[in-house]
Design a protein that fits this description.
Layout lengths: L6 H11 L5 E5 L13 E5 L13 H18 L7 H13 L6 H9 L3
Parallel strand pairs: 1-2
Length: about 110
Amino acid sequence: MSKPMGNNVLLSLLKATTLKGSTLVTDGNMGYRGAKDMGYEHFYVDHALFYSKDGINNNTIESFWSTLKRGIYGIYYSIYPKYLQNYVNKFCFRYNNRKNKNVFDLVLRQSVIV
């Protein structure tokens, strides 16, 4: 089992990868405490108390990560860290277009060089 990230490490990663003023919706991980002081709007969901409060939840992102993990285990079996962003991009596209009945046409249009 991996060791949880310390507060300083998590907030440093947040600062390096997330625009100031962004809205964060996280779980109850204590490592995110202090995000508001850094200029982020921060809402969190403590699953021990509730799964949604005032329309704030993280169910959609949890569903996405679940789909990504199942896809990696079911399709690739393992991944190379070098290509991790490519895997995530592929599943983002698939997730964002899951209700589109003409995905083939969309991919074809996007791949044509003008």
